Amino acid sequence: MRRSLALISASAALALGLTACVGPPEPDWRALEPEANAFVESGTRSPDSLGGGSFRARRDDAGPDDLSDDDDARLMLGYASDVRIDAVTMACFGGGEARLGLSTRSGSTWTGQGTALTVVCDGTQHGVPIDAPVQGVNAIQLSGVIADGPGGIVAGVVRGSTE
After folding, report:
1. How many other C-beta atoms can be found within 10 angstroms of the C-beta atom of residue 3?
2. Angstrom distance (rounded) from CA 141 to CA 112
3. CB 49 within 8 A of CB 159
């Protein structure tokens, strides 16, 4: 009897331990995509739009301060000639919180802009702080990781002008 009780206790402890390792379920990506697409379409209709898009952001086990190096967890826009970036607006859809940031490239040098921004993934638009208008830009990269929650779709729109 003691042996059976010990075996049952060990099995229960193992099952409990395994369930603790399972993260939150992934969001319903198909349900989130239309919201993100509508945000991008609306923002890119502006005459000063330099483009936009979206990407799936997932929880980064390295921590919320580490904006992921995963190529799928970012949006990169390149320009044939230099542009001036005046504003970047981003939104996250899906629940939880995301940490958003951006970098610009001038020539072949990438520079982080402003401070990473933590937002609630509820579809609200957020202006991402940049270091004043950024001139001489030939590419911009928007990035994001989920700091809390299962994941979400991050969308961004870039505004400015060609130089």
Report:
1. 7
2. 9
3. yes
